[in-house]
C-alpha cells in the first residue's frame, strides 16, 4: 500500500503490489512514483495508473533514485553488486538499459544530468556508495557511454584522519551527494570527485 502525504495530511493511498514494497522514490517533478517489490513499477502520481514495470532484481531493492530529468531510475538490491539503470518510456521492454558493476552492494545512490549541448540527451553522472564505504562514480554523455564507463573509486585511509594515533574503526564513506557539476567529460568527473569528498559525513 502506498500513502501520499502533504503537510502531514494523507492525500490518498493505493495498492502498488500484492507483495511488500521494499523501496519507493518520487521523481523530481513530483509526477511519477517508482515502487519496488517483486518488480519495479512506475506509476503516474495523479491517477495511480501504471506506466511501466521492470524485472531484474532477485533480492529486495534497498535504494532507488530518479535522474533529474525523470527519464531513468537507478536501483540496487540487497546482496547485488551492481546498479541497474532503467529507462522510463512506457515501453514493454523490462530489462535494464545499463548495469554498472561494483565490488560490493550499494547502500546509497545519487545522480546528476549534465547538458553538454553536443548530444540529444543530457549526460549522466552516477554516484553509488558500497556497503564497505567506497564511493563509485560513473559518467557518460549518453546511456551507451555510461554502459561502457569505468568507475572512479573514492575511499578514505588512516592518513586522512587528523590524528596519527587514531585507533578506531577504519574510516569509510557512508553518505555523499553530487553537486556543482557544470561541465561534461573530465571536468564533470573532477567536479563529482570534489563534491563527494566535500560532503562526506
Number of helices: 2
Label the overall shape: globular
**Largest pleated sheet:** 4 strands, antiparallel
Quaternary class: single chain
Mean pLDDT: 78
Number of E strands: 14
Radius of gyration over alpha carbons?
18 Å
Spatial separation of the terminal alpha carbons: 33 Å
Helix content: under 10%
Strand content: 35-45%
Order of helices and strands: EEEEEEEEEEEEEHEH
Describe the secondary structure blueprint for this structure.
Layout: E1 2-6, E2 9-14, E3 23-26, E4 32-36, E5 40-44, E6 50-54, E7 61-66, E8 72-77, E9 82-87, E10 98-101, E11 106-114, E12 123-130, E13 135-140, H1 143-148, E14 152-154, H2 185-198
Antiparallel strand pairs: 1-2, 3-4, 4-5, 5-6, 7-8, 8-9, 9-10, 11-12, 12-13, 13-14
Task: Give a structural overview.
- This protein has 201 residues and is mainly beta.
- The chain contains two helices and 14 strands, in the order βββββββββββββαβα.
- It has helices at 143-148, 185-198; strands at residues 2-6, 9-14, 23-26, 32-36, 40-44, 50-54, 61-66, 72-77, 82-87, 98-101, 106-114, 123-130, 135-140, 152-154.
- The strands form four sheets. It has a four-stranded antiparallel beta sheet with strand order 3-4-5-6, with no helix packed on it. It has a four-stranded antiparallel beta sheet with strand order 7-8-9-10. A four-stranded antiparallel beta sheet has the order 11-12-13-14.
- β1 and β2 (9-14) form a beta hairpin.
- The chain is globular and about 50 Å long.
- It starts with a strand and ends with a helix.
- Residues 184-201 have low confidence and may be disordered.
Amino acid at each position: 500500500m502506498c500513502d501520499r502525504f502533504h503537510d502531514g495530511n494523507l492525500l490518498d493511498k493505493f495498492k502498488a503490489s500484492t507483495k511488500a514494497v521494499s523501496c519507493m522514490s518520487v521523481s523530481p517533478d513530483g509526477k511519477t512514483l517508482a515502487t519496488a517489490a517483486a518488480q519495479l513499477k512506475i506509476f503516474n502520481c495523479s491517477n495511480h495508473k501504471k506506466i511501466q514495470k521492470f524485472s531484474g532484481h532477485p533480492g529486495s531493492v534497498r535504494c532507488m533514485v530518479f535522474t533529474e530529468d525523470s527519464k531513468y531510475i537507478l536501483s540496487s538490491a540487497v546482496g547485488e553488486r551492481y546498479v541497474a539503470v532503467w529507462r522510463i518510456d512506457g515501453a514493454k521492454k523490462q530489462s535494464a538499459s545499463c548495469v554498472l558493476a561494483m565490488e560490493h552492494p550499494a547502500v546509497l545512490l545519487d545522480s546528476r544530468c549534465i547538458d553538454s549541448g553536443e548530444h540529444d540527451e543530457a549526460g549522466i553522472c552516477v554516484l553509488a556508495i558500497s556497503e564497505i564505504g567506497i564511493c563509485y562514480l560513473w559518467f557518460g554523455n549518453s546511456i551507451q557511454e555510461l554502459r561502457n564507463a569505468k568507475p572512479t573509486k573514492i575511499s578514505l585511509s588512516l592518513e586522512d584522519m587528523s590524528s596519527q594515533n587514531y585507533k578506531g574503526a577504519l574510516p569509510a564513506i557512508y553518505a555523499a551527494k553530487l553537486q556543482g557539476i557544470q561541465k561534461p567529460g573530465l571536468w564533470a568527473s573532477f567536479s563529482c570527485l570534489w563534491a563527494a569528498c566535500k560532503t562526506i559525513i
